Amino acid sequence: MLKNIYPITRNILSKGEDIALLFARLTLAYGFYEPAMQKWSDISSVASWFGTIGIPFPTLNAYLVASTELLGVLLLTLGLFTRLISLPLIVIMIVAITTVHLTHGFSAGDNGFEIPLYYMLFLAIFASFGAGKFSLDHLLFGEEQ
After folding, report:
1. pTM here?
2. With CB atoms counted within 10 Å of each terminal CB, which end of the chain scores lower, N or C?
């Protein structure tokens, strides 16, 4: 019986793939917005902090991270070059996890790596599946997931 129900269920639920990718992109873009704006509001403090946690070339990396996050907000919102922007954002999440969050454990409430891990997983989905039909990637390049 389950063998018969599964294909029917899959066909019904797969119709929501593109809207799910759209909502996931918009949610993640929103999640990157505030940290990006905070970095830009006091980039010199970010650079100093990067230096204290051992990130090489802290000023350059502060500008690169802030720029990449802000560009990520724009591109994820539009669904433009979604696969490409996902890669440097994944790198940023890996660095954030290893330099800041890992020592605090998993829980987001303890500043652990839970949230950056979720972001990284969403970004991996976008890198693998693309932005979906509700995107400029689809409109301009005919890209399907």
Report:
1. 0.92
2. N
